[in-house]
Amino acid sequence: MKRLFFAIVAILFTGSIFAAVYEDFEYEINQNKEITIVKFLNKKQQEVIIPSNINGNPVATIGESALCGCESLTSITIPNSVTTIGNEAFYYCESLTS
């Protein structure tokens, strides 16, 4: 019962229904079935393509600090479905050129 309470509080606090992993992306899906990329897991990747959707749900947001520390990242492709990019999403991505 206690775990269920904390799970409900977490959902209400974050607005997320669940968190999951797709390829190298950790993401959350909100109540509107829109995806937020919350973390990129492969910090050594040089080129990243953000998917326009995951399991049929649109990727709408790159979350705060989502790609932070990807020092090898030189190029990122962002689809038109992304309408919001969080603060410091690309912080310490000093090799990023395009």
Features of the shown structure:
98 residues, mainly beta, two-stranded parallel ribbon, 1 helix, 36% strand, globular
Structure description:
- With 98 residues, this protein is mainly β.
- The protein is 13% helix and 36% strand.
- Strands 1, 2, 3, 5, 6 and 8 form a 6-stranded mixed beta sheet that branches. It has a two-stranded parallel ribbon with strand order 4-7.
- The termini are far apart.
- The model is unreliable at 4-11 (pLDDT under 50).
SSE arrangement:
Elements: H1 2-14, E1 16-22, E2 25-30, E3 35-40, E4 47-49, E5 53-54, E6 57-62, E7 75-77, E8 84-85
Parallel strand pairs: 3-6, 4-7, 6-8
Antiparallel strand pairs: 1-2, 2-3, 5-6
Outline:
The chain has 98 residues and is mainly β.
Q: Nearest-angstrom radius of gyration?
A: 14 Å
The largest β sheet comes out as:
6 strands, mixed
Q: List low-pLDDT spans.
A: 4-11
**Total beta-strand segments:** 8
Proportion of residues in extended strands = 35-45%
What's the mean pLDDT score? 87
Approximately how much helix is present in the residues? 10-25%
